[in-house]
Amino acid sequence: MALVKISVDIYALDADEVYRIYVNDTLMVERTFRWPPTENFIRENLVIDVPPGEYSVYVTPLSTFILKNVIVNGALSNDTFIIR
User: Fold this and answer.
1) I want to staple 39 with a disulfide (CB 3.0 to 4.6 A). Which of 35, 50, 65, 76 is the partner?
2) CB 19 within 8 A of CB 10
3) What are the sequence ranges of the domains in the chain?
């Protein structure tokens, strides 16, 4: 098992909407985005303990939220990454 730190920026197209962050198919976070339109993103920090393998991080609903700036263990990454 490996302790993995993931940081992502969640950009919102509308305030007061619920978003969910998943790693693979596991729900990690569910929150309501309650920031004013001028503050259109929030940084989420996740810590997971997982075996080696390929992982994907994503946000739903895709029509309202965009995931950017994925950082895995301190390094800029894609939304899909491999843990060794």
Assistant:
1) 35
2) yes
3) 2-83
* 45 beta partners: 7
String of b and e for 10-25 (b: at least 16 CB within 10 Å)?
bbbeeeeeebebebee
Greatest Cα-to-Cα distance within the chain, rounded to the nearest angstrom: 40
Q: What backbone torsions phi and psi does residue 32 show, to the nearest 5 degrees?
A: -105, 130
Residue range 35-66, pLDDT digits in tens: 776 777 899 999 999 999 999 999 999 888 99
What is the helix (H) or strand (E) element at residue 2, kind and residue range? strand 2-12
- Report how many helices (DSSP H) and strands (DSSP E) the chain contains, helices first: 0, 8
User: What CA–CA distances, in Å, run from 10 to 1, 23, 74?
Assistant: 27, 14, 17
- pTM for the whole structure: 0.90
